[in-house]
Amino acid sequence: MDSFSSPSMPSSGSPGNTEALMDQIKAQLAQAYAQEFLETVGNKCFAKCVTKPGSSLSGSETSCISRCVDRYIEATGIVSRALFSSSR
Questions:
Q1: What DSSP string describes 28-72?
Q2: Global pTM?
Q3: Confidence (pLDDT) at 13
Q4: Residue 1's pLDDT band (cuts 50, 70, 90)
């Protein structure tokens, strides 16, 4: 066996347990991705749109942030679709 091969997983777990574990891992990854996404979007859009931080956002800052988030979500969707369609 070369250094890139991995030993086969032990068959002690039932297929149901393996599927449940995979579902749990997928959910945790999705949550981590969502948190990172929101933090990134928030930081980038805040830096772009809020020129003078104060106790509240102005109307133009609010609409700028809204447009920024919408564009970021749209761009992420386009990139995701392109990546997933090319991997099939």
A1: HHHHHHHHHHHHHHHHHHHHHH-SS--SS--HHHHHHHHHHHHHH
A2: 0.62
A3: 56
A4: very low
